Amino acid sequence: MEIQDEKQFFKSSIVVPIILVMIMLLVEIVEAVFHLDFSFLGIKPLSAEGLPGILLFHFLHGDWEHLFANSIPILVLGTSLYYFYKPIANKILLILMLSTGLITWCLARSGVHIGASALVYGLTFFLMLSGFIRREKKTVIISLIVVFLYGSLVWGLYPKYAIENNISWEGHLSGFVMGIVLAFFYKNEGPQREEHVWENEEEDKGEDEKPYWDIPEPDKDELTIVYRFRK
Q: Span 149-171, mean pLDDT?
């Protein structure tokens, strides 16, 4: 891929992550300017009132610190998803957004759950595992980078640590599980490891290149002539 094409491809890969972060930022700005609190739109487990939160909770945050903590990973991981897994990126993102919300609604403890961290966990563990499953050079590299940058997210899966810090470990767990599930489920879609096939040398031989054992036997007349000559 040429440098110009590479730049264009990167620009197209960052569009969706930027849109997601801009929506989150816009929601936080509206809350700050008009002194509103949209947290009531978050997930309220096993409650009909909390059903809209299955989709909306990704875009709601408790404060600016919470928003920025999720925005950078969304940009980094989302761009990586669209850059390295372009053919399946939309499916992965949509499934993660829906499934993590649904799992959190079904299994989380009572309260209101908000924030994009479930999506961050889903993207992290999809990218982390998928590259190693595929064993394709570029995806393995991005897996190693994700491990280095976001491997510490595993601490957010421990209930005691999460509860002490007022964190929705259930949302984190839903992202962790779905990231792994999707990495295996879509392992045959998207980038794949190149397989080198070595052709059989005998198949490459021309019609004129025959082994010595393929030399035709002489006909009877030739044998007779040879016999008479020897006699």
A: 79
Query: pTM of this prediction?
Result: 0.80
Classified as helix, coil or strand, 43 is strand
Q: Residue 122: CB partners within 8 Å, gap ≥ 6?
A: 96, 99, 100, 174, 175, 176, 178, 179, 182
In one letter, which amino acid is 109? Answer: R
Q: At residue 211, does pLDDT exceed 80?
A: no
Task: Give all domains of the chain, ordered by start, each with its CATH number.
Answer: 3-185 (1.20.1540.10)
- d(C-alpha 57, C-alpha 41), whole Å: 7
Q: How many Å apart are CA 23 and CA 70, to the nearest integer?
A: 13
**CB 78, CB 20: distance < 8 Å:** yes
Tokens of 143: 């897996």
How far is residue 146 CA from its own chain's centroid? 11
Strands (DSSP E) contained in the chain are none
Structure tokens at 61: 């945050």
| CA 213/CA 68 separation, integer angstroms | 77
| Nearest alpha carbon to residue 19 among 88, 113, 97 | 97
The residues, any chain, with a CB within 8 Å of residue 30's CB and separated by 6 or more, are: 36, 38
pLDDT tens digits, 184-195: 999 998 777 766
